[in-house]
């Protein structure tokens, strides 16, 4: 169960017990944790794969693993560890499909622990509009949380949920030279609507990632002599939120996630704190770490271009 | 993206340049040199220097260093004071494409 199902943890808890509550909170805190991408460029801007919010590129990727640890405030309070992966493949130019899943360990206070697989998640994304000169991209896609494929022990949903989603990315490299220090900034964002197939609550899934690319600063704005590893780091803050929209609504839940990405030759390492944005989300700070493997660099003949329609990086 | 690591299988990113990215120099440099993280494919890689009006001012002889295929060089004539833009497109040996741009300024000591 990913972010799309995290509507109201309190209601969920009352209906399904502590396991479901824990799963819900993990989803609320992670908002698509496994959903990251490989090399995404607009002109000279490299948009890195972000951890908590999906970026707008439809490219080949392997995110393995993403490990999230959080403590949720439910009844009982539960410590949860979630390990997940995602694999995406570009099928046609600018169109990719993906599959992701994960396994979750839940340890509620005063109760025995539970371990189980999350629901399988399938996705599709298309890069609809790009303006490389302005480091701009807009994409559309959808996520299908396949109900009943996960373990009920951890509260995996039995119903299908579809989440049509739009994505955008904007680099600030086109700012005037008087604002050169801000040129390394980039913002990506997502906005989706959960549509469950059974009588559950619809919710808006929205997120932002604000990045400051030190590689961009060093190579396109001003070489300030940063040494390794700093010159290949991208500090960022991600914001990941869920807002219920019907059936009684409920509080918006979400997290603020400051962290850093490190770009190596064949992989990216990322780590972020997971800070609950409000009391309905929780009060304990968690952590998430991620490894993104650049398949297109390791196996360039196999990855980094679509299956059909010619090469398209 | 570590300089000095030579591999045929990765994107070629700019590691550093001479003149430095965003720098101000007091004399017209004889060349612009770009060091990349991977070896380049010269037939498909480009390096152009333009003045503030967008006119190409380099000697149109962009080439890889004989002994270092990660070093891309273009010669410059004696240039007057002003702002200059370096535009590059790099194709690594596995055909991955990258590009970038940066500025440097020539400002003689007064």
Q: Which series of helices and strands of chain B comes N to C?
A: EEEEEEEE
Count of helix runs of chain B: 0
Helical amount of chain B: under 10%
Number of strands of chain B: 8
Q: What is the terminal separation of chain A in angstroms? A: 31 Å
The total of beta strands of chain A comes to 15
**Number of helical stretches of at least 4 residues of chain A:** 4
Structural shape of chain A: globular
CA radius of gyration of chain A: 19 Å
Which structural class do the helices and strands of chain B define? mainly beta
The rounded distance between the terminal residues' Cα atoms of chain B is: 39 Å
Low-confidence stretches of chain B: 1-9
Beta-strand share of residues of chain A: over 45%
Order of helices and strands of chain A: HHEEEEEEEEEEEHEEEEH
Task: Look at the structure and give the mean pLDDT of chain A.
Answer: 87
Main pleated-sheet profile of chain A: 12 strands, antiparallel, barrel
Commentary on this structure:
The complex is a heterodimer of chains A (313) and B (110). Chain A is mostly beta strands. Chain A is built from four helices and 15 strands. In chain A, helix 1 runs antiparallel to helix 2 (18-30). With 110 residues, chain B is an all-beta fold. Chain B has no helices and eight strands. Chain B has a four-stranded antiparallel β-sheet, with no helix packed on it. Chain B is elongated. The model of chain B is unreliable at 1-9 (pLDDT under 50). Classes of the chains: A mainly beta (313), B mainly beta (110). Chains A and B meet through helix 3 and helix 4 of A and strand 1 and strand 8 of B.
